[in-house]
């Protein structure tokens, strides 16, 4: 009769009854034994405590879903607006060179002026000139045709009725012989093409560095979210199993409460990391554009590639240091600036000379092409115009002041270049030191994770023997998840630091070795 009543009660009541009998049997009486954790009874399903966190690493994903760093590079360098904007710097510098060449364009000028009043032709003036600058010596080749007739035309300018033709040269013998404003502007514009190209490289490098950082931030956010979601699934499975075992009386009911708290805590982390992953994906999408200059969103199914963790050896580092000290875009730009100021200084020294120019023109009647024209009206040494211009400021204060300003600018740019070179070389060394530190940290983290896996495995075995608790299992597993998240953070930081190393050396790497 008693047996029938005991079986008639519900499963939950039997579990609590067995728990009460167990507590009564372990009350502090004489010769009482030390209580132990409940063991798994024969015939009951084991709790699924084995965890994928014990695996050496996460399984490989479908390569068709991988959005690699090379894929990012292809899109950034082909379609990114700021990369296209950087290309405008070189085009603008070339346009400045073209504008400077305009100082040597031939110039054709013409002017007509006539006055007729009261039946009197006061004057009829028609002046034409073609000036062709000759680059090497600041010489101007001139050809002209003037027709100035009329009753009241100044005899000094009066010409035959057929006009007067002339061809000649204007040559600076003082200031402007070696270099003048036109040649100075052209040479400086050509030098600034180099500076613009250096600016272009630097701007593209900055765009790529930011893209790489956003890419590895996306990788870290993805791995972090995956690990925590895996932890949620494991904790929930363990909670379900623990609840069933508690109902069967094989495990303390309080263990299910502990397991449920772990599930809720990891779910909270997973919700927060989902938002962080979404934001990281949006930040990376800032760099994605198609060929039609339309923004592109990163697909939700896309996953990042695994870090290559390619080591930069001493020889490669030495090459990067040498490259940084010689051909860094900042140094190239400063070198161009110094050379530009050197041209300006030479021009300012030239302006200290007296202004002396000589011009001469051979003359002929306007119809010199006619064979019947007398020979004494043709081009010859007896038909010419000659002029000499001379000017010299007595104190040269303006010229000396501008020359002094230019020399100070040269000194300033030279000192800036020296400091920049030292700063760049030290930045490269500092980033390399950080890279080496990450290598050591990654090696230590790998060992720590291996030890934590061993600890978790041992804890699982102890639990199967009834010598551990769900609390300890969850604690060990949570610590392992935390260590693996830290490992992914180190991997992402290593890749970002390697990109910074190339950036500070004045170049860029696609990450695909």
Question: How would you explain this protein's 3D organization?
Answer:
InterPro entries: OMP_efflux, TolC-like. The chain has 513 residues and is of the alpha+beta class. Helices cover 57% and strands 13% of the residues. The chain contains ten helices and eight strands. The protein has helices spanning 2-8, 11-25, 69-79, 81-101, 181-247, 253-285, 314-327, 329-350, 397-464, 470-504, and strands at 66-67, 107-117, 120-134, 139-149, 164-172, 303-304, 355-365, 384-391. The protein has a six-stranded antiparallel β-sheet with strand order 2-3-4-5-7-8, with no helix packed on it. A two-stranded parallel ribbon has the order 1-6. Helix 5 (181-247) packs antiparallel against helix 8, helix 7 packs antiparallel against helix 9 (397-464) and helix 9 packs antiparallel against helix 10. The longest helix has 68 residues, at 397-464. The protein is elongated and about 135 Å long. It starts with a helix and ends in a 9-residue tail after the last helix.
Q: What structural keywords apply?
A:
513 residues, 10 helices, 57% helix, disordered N terminus, transmembrane, transmembrane beta strand
Summarize the structure.
The protein has 513 residues and is an alpha+beta fold.
What share of residues are in beta strands? Answer: 5-15%
Strand order across the largest sheet: 2-3-4-5-7-8
Distance between the termini: 80 Å
State the order of secondary-structure elements, H for helix, E for strand: HHEHHEEEEHHEHHEEHH
**Main pleated sheet:** 6 strands, antiparallel
**Class by alpha and beta content:** alpha+beta
- Total strands: the figure is 8
The backbone outline, from C-alpha atoms, is elongated
Unreliable residue stretches: 1-50
**Continuous helix count:** 10
Radius of gyration: 44 Å
Helical residues, percent: 55-70%
What is the typical, i.e. mean, pLDDT? 85
Protein name: TolC family protein
Subcellular location: Cell outer membrane
InterPro entries: OMP_efflux, TolC-like
Pfam families: OEP (PF02321)
């Amino acid at each position: 009769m008693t047996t029938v009543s005991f079986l008639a009660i519900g499963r939950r009541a039997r579990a609590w009854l067995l728990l009460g009998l167990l507590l009564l049997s372990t009350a502090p009486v004489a010769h009482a034994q030390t209580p132990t954790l409940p063991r798994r009874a024969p015939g009951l399903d084991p709790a699924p405590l084995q965890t994928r966190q014990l695996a050496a690493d996460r399984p490989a994903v479908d390569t068709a879903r991988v959005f690699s760093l090379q894929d990012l590079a292809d899109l950034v360098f082909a379609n990114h607006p700021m990369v296209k904007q950087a290309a405008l710097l070189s085009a603008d510098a070339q346009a400045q060179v073209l504008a400077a060449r305009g100082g040597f364009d031939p110039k054709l000028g013409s002017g007509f002026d006539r006055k007729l009043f009261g039946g009197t032709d006061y004057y009829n003036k028609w002046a034409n000139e073609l000036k062709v600058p000759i680059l090497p010596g600041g010489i101007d080749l001139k050809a002209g045709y003037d027709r100035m007739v009329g009753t009241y035309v100044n005899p000094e300018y009066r010409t035959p009725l057929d006009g007067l033709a002339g061809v000649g040269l204007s040559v600076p013998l003082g200031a402007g012989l070696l270099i003048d404003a036109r040649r100075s502007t052209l040479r400086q514009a050509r030098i600034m093409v180099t500076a613009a190209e250096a600016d272009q490289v630097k701007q593209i490098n900055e765009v790529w560095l930011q893209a790489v950082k956003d890419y590895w931030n996306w990788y870290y956010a993805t791995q972090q979210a995956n690990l925590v979601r895996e932890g949620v699934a494991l904790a929930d499975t363990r909670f379900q199993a623990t609840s069933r075992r508690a109902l069967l009386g094989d495990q303390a009911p309080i263990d299910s409460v502990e397991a449920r708290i772990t599930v809720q805590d990891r779910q909270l982390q997973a919700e927060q990391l989902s938002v962080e992953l979404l934001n990281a994906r949006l930040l990376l999408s800032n760099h994605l554009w198609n060929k039609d200059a339309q923004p592109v969103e990163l697909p939700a199914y896309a996953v990042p590639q695994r870090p290559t963790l390619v080591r930069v050896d001493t020889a490669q580092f030495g090459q990067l240091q040498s490259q940084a000290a010689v051909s860094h875009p900042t140094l190239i730009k400063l070198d161009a600036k110094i050379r530009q100021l050197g041209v300006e200084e030479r021009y300012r020294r030239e302006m200290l000379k007296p202004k002396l120019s000589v011009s001469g023109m051979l003359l002929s009647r306007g119809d010199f092409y006619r064979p019947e024209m007398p020979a004494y009206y043709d081009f010859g040494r007896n038909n010419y115009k000659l002029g000499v211009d001379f000017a010299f400021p007595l104190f040269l204060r303006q010229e000396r002041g501008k020359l002094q300003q230019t020399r100070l600018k040269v000194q300033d740019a030279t000192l800036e270049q020296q400091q920049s070179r030292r700063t760049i070389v030290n930045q490269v060394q500092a980033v390399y030191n950080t890279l080496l530190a990450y290598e050591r940290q990654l090696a230590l983290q790998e060992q720590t994770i291996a030890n934590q896996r061993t600890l978790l495995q041992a804890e699982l075995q102890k639990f199967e023997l009834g010598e551990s608790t769900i609390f300890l299992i969850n604690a060990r597993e949570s610590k392992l998840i935390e260590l693996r998240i830290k490992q992914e953070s180190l991997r992402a930081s290593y890749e970002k630091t390697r990109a910074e190393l190339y950036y500070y050396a004045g170049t860029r790497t696609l990450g695909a070795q």
